[in-house]
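Internal ticket #5521
Category: modeling
Description: The requester needs a full-assembly model to guide mutagenesis choices. All entity lines are attached below as received. Residue total reported by intake: 648.
Assigned to: D.W.
Attached entities:
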Amino acid sequence: MIVIGLITAFVLGLSVINFISRDFSILEKIGFSYIIGIGLETLFMFILDVMNIRFTGSILIFVSLICILVLNYKNIKNSKNIIGKIRHFDLKLPKINIKKIKLVWLFFFILTCFLLYGSVSKCLYWPTSAYDNVTSFDLMGKVMGIEGKIYNSLFEVDGVAVRSVGTGADYPPLVAGNFAFAYSFGSATSKIMSALLFVFFVIAFYSLLVKYINKTSSMIFTFFMIIAPEMFAFTSLSTSNIPFMIYTASAIITLFIWFDKKEKKYLFISSILMFFSTWARGEGIAFFGVAFVMLLFDSIKNKNWKELLIYSSIVLFSIISWNLYLKFTIEITQNRFITHLFWDYSKFLKILTGVKTLITNTNLYGISFYMFFLVFLLNIKNLFKDKIHLVIMILLSLSAYSSLFYQIDNEVQRASIESLMMSSYKRGLFTFIPLIWFYISMTKITNFVFGRLED
Amino acid sequence: MGKKKKHRKKQRQKQVQTQDRSTALRSKDIIALIISFLVVFVLYKTVGGYKWLWDTLVIGNIKMIRKYPDLTLEKKWEVKCGFDYTYLNFIKKNTPEDAIILMPSDSALYPEGQKSDFNTRNSAGVKNKAWSTYFLYPRKVVYEREKESNPLYTKVNYVAIANYKGYEKLSYKIDKKQKYYVLPISLEEESKK
């Protein structure tokens, strides 16, 4: 049954992508269909919960099918033409010329597939056991999936507030909803959800790289992206950090593509992905803030506010709706952040030291940050001519993300800034790994070296 | 005749040129492959994180999975979560789904001056309500520390025994006491069972 559910989620995502534009490449469609489809399933859970309808696997499939029909309305209307086209369709499979396959591409393709196999098999073999997942995300997902409600017996029993779940349950419902999807179809564990999300993200990342650089280089940089050690270790766990990284990094990259190519389809995809980024973790607001500032400057420059309005209203819907739900249904007010500006030199220094310690630790992120700074310096002459939007977004996002930690009220959080840096902040840096490698791959200096691979 | 010969000669020359070009490309490809292999190898040898990723996360796990392909979900949880899981699984197997279970207090889990079987390394384990709920759901769990705040405390129908503590909560006497156990709080509950 879970297989039917997953296929439905994939088709739903594909319908959304096709609805936005039919011009996406096949790889982009494959990669993003699942990522968007499964995100939408969690949105359906939320809407059904607000409407007081208990969601089950069958109901989710039913709602998805209705959406698929609506999104494909034009196709259904032209079904005669489409059937005619299918009848006369001459199936030509792409000819694979083995001689033309680059050995380097093949080498990194095999390595990437093997690493993915390692991650997926570990993910599916071991059940959830990490503390945060057991006490928050997977527990919440399990009860959501079985009871069909977000506000469930973990919060209230017979009208009495009795909390039996960790603080992760206050996070937006994307991650728990993802797990709930598996449980609502009767699965014993939810690990398949984490595994699939990562595999489809790797395809999506490669598909976006191929837009700019040759296939061999794309495969090399995809490989380097996935081997950031700490991030790779987390891909087989059920934490919220990897889904957050997937949605946020994809949203920033597709927004960059929109800035670069001005193809509207990427703006829409980015807004949907940013919606799910803020639907996964509260930190998404820092990255949305950066996207908002970039779009605002673009709007002022081009005197066109449409893009900014569309983008912001889509993402704000996610932030506002979840916060209202927290306040009025779960009855929790977020007070982890200090809402006024202040200056604490010692805290600032601790954060700065923490950032330096983390990004220079090759045991955590491999050579990712070193390569970023190296390429950044080598490319400094071309900095303003060469993918400047992406560089600004990476640096602004890093600052905005660090500022969030500066604003945390450590007394309310009951954790020192040092410990938060070494736990939450460390895992939040995963988001920068795909962004960094995307930037590294497409600078002039990198293309000078790697561009020759397919001459 | 002369024209034909010239044409053939040109064709042969073209073939030779194409062959030369593809041979050059292939050799370039092979050189690039060797360089790629060397780069990956050097990174594996010099960056500790990459070595850990390959040796432990990938190869180590694949070996482990191949060694124990038929391990049940229960056994896997036992490997990962230790005695705390074994204890909760025992409670799960010996209580109905609608049970409201009074969990052992901290002093029962970690008796003074004795080595405890329960987790002491971090916040995970039986002492943690959310952690216990994960393994016991749909059963409800109540802790001694929630006596004043949790209305379910008065509705408790099962008591989890740890380190011989918890028997005092029962409304009946037990002759043969066991170190770890779960029992109905009253004989009425026992008859319902």
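Resolution: model delivered.
Comment from assignee: Chain A is about 70% helix and 0% strand.
Ticket closed.
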